[in-house]
Amino acid sequence: xxxxxxxxxxxxxxAGTGDTAALGALLxxxxxxxxxxxxxxxxxxxQGRVDPSDVLQEAFLQAAQRLAQYLRxxxxxxxxxxxxxxxxxxxxxxxxxxxxxxxxxxxxVSLYQGAMPEASSACLxxxxxxxxxxxxxxxxxxxxxxxxQEALNRMDPTDREVLALRHFExxxxxxxxxxxxxxxxxxxxxxxxxxxxxxxIIGQVPGFLEG
Length: 211
What we know:
By secondary structure, this protein is mostly helical. The chain is 67% helix and 4% strand. The chain has helices at residues 4-16, 20-28, 31-41, 52-72, 78-98, 121-129, 138-153, 157-168, 173-180, 184-204, and strands at 108-111, 114-117. Strands 1-2 form a two-stranded antiparallel sheet. Strand 1 and strand 2 form a beta hairpin. The radius of gyration is 18 Å and the shape is globular.
């Protein structure tokens, strides 16, 4: 089986020489993970107005334009760089569509030399509710989502972000540590604590486990 890191390195090398097919394959190999991040961090007020595919298209275009700069001085793994560019596009789209309202659209999480839209408690609650397959009345579902959101709001912000990165974006521990600027052991401890807290939260929401 081909080592994904070796395959990425080979595609990067070829893309750096102007191989557009290699660049396309490289970007496409990360589309699924990045789409998951966009869906998690897209402002709820923009859902239905902004297509995640359009966000990724703009991010990939910028990545193609800035690839040579990245290759000269790669400060982070390629996927995390792509993720950073995608987060910047999310912020740009939020400001473009919401204007002055964007200041109240939620906090931003500082990453590297820029920022990333926060995975809000509302988005996390929506993701959790999406995992319920049993049919529920709209009023019951709305009440459960509100209870989840309120409980998630009481979590430590860093723990909530670790939960978003590991459990929902499915970043590995090393990637999570680099994103947050902490040690891998610190990221692992944070995740275990956040996961335990999430289980406690779910257990406190009446009817959630049954759903």
